[in-house]
C-alpha cells in the first residue's frame, strides 16, 4: 500500500497518473531557481554576450521556456498543462561564482506548475553548460529547487 501523499501509486502498488478531473481550476504559480557555478573568465564571457556562440543567456532563457511547455513529455506521470505564463531569467549570482536561473510559471488549472518551473530551470542551466563547456568543463549545476508556490488545494508554500 502506498504511504500518505504518494498519489502516483494505486491501491495495487502500480504507478498511475493522478486523476485531477474533479479538481477545480485555480490560479497557480511556482518559482524555481538553480545555479551554474563557473570560473571568473567563463562568467565574464557569458555576461558579455560576445562569445563564439553569441548571447548564451538569451538562448538559455528561451530553452527554459520551451522546456516548461514540454514538461509532460519529459517527466512521467506529469499532467500536460496549458501554461498562461513562463518567464526565465539568467543573472549573475550574488557572490560572483556563476549564473542563477529563475523560472516563474503560471497557469489556471486543476494541478500545480512546480514541475514546469523546475524543468525550465534545469533546461536553462543545461543549455548554458552546453554552450560554455568548451571554455570550462568544470562547471557545476547546483541548488535546483522550488522557491515558492501559490494556489491549489494544498495552499501556498515558500522556502524558508
UniProtKB/TrEMBL annotation:
<dbReference type="InterPro" id="IPR050105">
    <property type="entry name" value="MoCo_biosynth_MoaA/MoaC"/>
</dbReference>
<protein>
    <recommendedName>
        <fullName>Cyclic pyranopterin monophosphate synthase</fullName>
        <ecNumber>4.6.1.17</ecNumber>
    </recommendedName>
</protein>
<feature type="binding site">
    <location>
        <begin position="77"/>
        <end position="79"/>
    </location>
    <ligand>
        <name>substrate</name>
    </ligand>
</feature>
<dbReference type="InterPro" id="IPR036522">
    <property type="entry name" value="MoaC_sf"/>
</dbReference>
<keyword id="KW-0456">Lyase</keyword>
<feature type="active site">
    <location>
        <position position="130"/>
    </location>
</feature>
<comment type="pathway">
    <text>Cofactor biosynthesis; molybdopterin biosynthesis.</text>
</comment>
<feature type="domain" description="Molybdopterin cofactor biosynthesis C (MoaC)">
    <location>
        <begin position="17"/>
        <end position="152"/>
    </location>
</feature>
<dbReference type="Pfam" id="PF01967">
    <property type="entry name" value="MoaC"/>
</dbReference>
<feature type="binding site">
    <location>
        <begin position="115"/>
        <end position="116"/>
    </location>
    <ligand>
        <name>substrate</name>
    </ligand>
</feature>
<dbReference type="InterPro" id="IPR047594">
    <property type="entry name" value="MoaC_bact/euk"/>
</dbReference>
<comment type="subunit">
    <text>Homohexamer; trimer of dimers.</text>
</comment>
<dbReference type="InterPro" id="IPR002820">
    <property type="entry name" value="Mopterin_CF_biosynth-C_dom"/>
</dbReference>
<keyword id="KW-0501">Molybdenum cofactor biosynthesis</keyword>
<dbReference type="GO" id="GO:0061799">
    <property type="term" value="F:cyclic pyranopterin monophosphate synthase activity"/>
</dbReference>
<dbReference type="InterPro" id="IPR023045">
    <property type="entry name" value="MoaC"/>
</dbReference>
<comment type="function">
    <text>Catalyzes the conversion of (8S)-3',8-cyclo-7,8-dihydroguanosine 5'-triphosphate to cyclic pyranopterin monophosphate (cPMP).</text>
</comment>
<comment type="similarity">
    <text>Belongs to the MoaC family.</text>
</comment>
Amino acid at each position: 500500500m502506498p504511504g500518505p501523499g504518494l498519489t502516483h501509486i494505486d491501491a495495487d502498488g502500480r504507478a498511475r497518473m493522478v486523476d485531477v478531473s474533479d479538481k477545480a481550476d485555480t490560479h497557480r504559480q511556482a518559482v524555481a531557481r538553480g545555479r551554474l557555478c563557473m570560473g571568473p573568465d567563463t562568467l565574464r564571457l557569458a555576461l558579455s554576450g560576445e562569445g563564439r556562440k553569441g548571447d548564451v543567456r538569451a538562448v538559455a532563457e528561451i530553452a527554459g521556456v520551451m522546456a516548461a511547455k514540454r514538461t509532460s513529455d519529459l517527466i512521467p506521470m506529469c499532467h500536460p498543462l496549458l501554461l498562461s505564463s513562463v518567464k526565465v531569467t539568467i543573472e549573475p549570482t550574488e557572490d560572483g561564482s556563476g549564473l542563477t536561473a529563475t523560472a516563474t510559471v503560471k497557469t489556471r488549472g486543476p494541478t500545480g506548475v512546480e514541475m514546469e518551473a523546475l524543468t525550465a530551470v534545469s533546461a536553462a542551466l543545461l543549455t548554458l553548460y552546453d554552450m560554455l563547456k568548451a571554455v570550462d568543463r568544470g562547471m557545476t549545476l547546483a541548488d535546483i529547487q522550488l522557491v515558492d508556490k501559490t494556489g491549489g488545494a494544498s495552499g501556498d508554500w515558500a522556502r524558508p
